Amino acid sequence: MTPKTEIYFATRKTSKAHVYITKGSGRVRINNTPAEMIVQEVAREVILSPLEIAGDLRAKVDISVRVKGGGFMGQAYAAATAISRALTGWTKSKKEPKEHPFPKQTRTDLRKRINDFDKHLLSGDARRKEPKKFGGPGARRRKQKSYR
Q1: Where do the domains of the chain lie, and which CATH numbers do they carry?
Q2: What is the DSSP code (8-state) at residue 39?
Q3: Which of 5, 12, 2 is nearest to 82 (CA)?
Q4: What are phi and psi of 63, to 5 degrees?
Q5: Is the pLDDT of residue 57 over 70?
Q6: pLDDT tens figures, 58-115
Q7: CB within 8 A of 69, min separation 6: which ones?
Q8: Largest CA distance in the chain
Q9: What segment(s) does the record annotate as region Disordered (predicted)?
Q10: Please, how many CA atoms are within 13 Å of residue 105, restricted to the half-sphere of its CB?
Q11: Which residues is 61 bridged to in the sheet?
Q12: pLDDT tens by residue, 31-47
């Protein structure tokens, strides 16, 4: 029987990532492929950045990521945000996760370290929530050089 896990999620552009975190030996799988086998080096570094911040805590958990939609960089950023949320036990309702591999004190320390590194890793892209500005340039009103 597999241990109970909570699902943590994140989105970036049109990519959606879902993360399962369990106690384990430090394996990271993205779409059932080991993270070390991802071909794009930049995307691999982005995905593994929250785990590098976690340091030795990485060896205590197994992480499984399901990602779909968008391009490879959108998927990488969605996966990185979802992994950082899973490590810190972030939930939308701000409730305490039921069965998390790390105690509360460890998670708060890790949340502080991740925020110091990059505040967008936990919260996502702030521009997604911003409304369109009134009177801004539309598609037709862009300043273009006139050839008349």
Answers
A1: 7-126 (3.30.230.10)
A2: S
A3: 12
A4: -125, 130
A5: yes
A6: 899 999 999 999 999 999 999 999 999 888 887 666 677 777 888 888 888 888 888 8
A7: 14, 15, 16, 75
A8: 74
A9: 90-148
A10: 0
A11: 23
A12: 999 999 999 999 999 99
* 4-16: b (≥16 Cβ within 10 Å) or e: ebeebebbbeebb
The lowest-confidence range among 26-40, 69-83, 111-125, 126-140 is: 126-140
The residues that bridge with 23 in the sheet, in sequence order, are 61
DSSP string across 71-129:
-HHHHHHHHHHHHHHHHHT--TT-PPPSS-SS-HHHHHHHHHHHHHH-THHHH--GGGG
Burial of 20 (0-12, 13-18, 19+ CB in 10 A): middle
The rounded distance, in Å, linking the Cα atoms of 20 and 5 is 6
